[in-house]
Amino acid sequence: MSENNMELARLWLKKADNDLVTAKQTFLLPDGPTDTVCFHSQQVVEKALKALLTLNQIQIPKIHDLVRLLDLALPYLPELENFREDFAEMSNYAVAIRYPDDWFEPGREDTQRSLDVAEQIIIKIKGLMNRYL
Question: Which CATH number fits domain 3-130: 3.40.50.300, 2.40.30.170, 1.20.120.330, 1.10.10.10?
Answer without folding.
Answer: 1.20.120.330
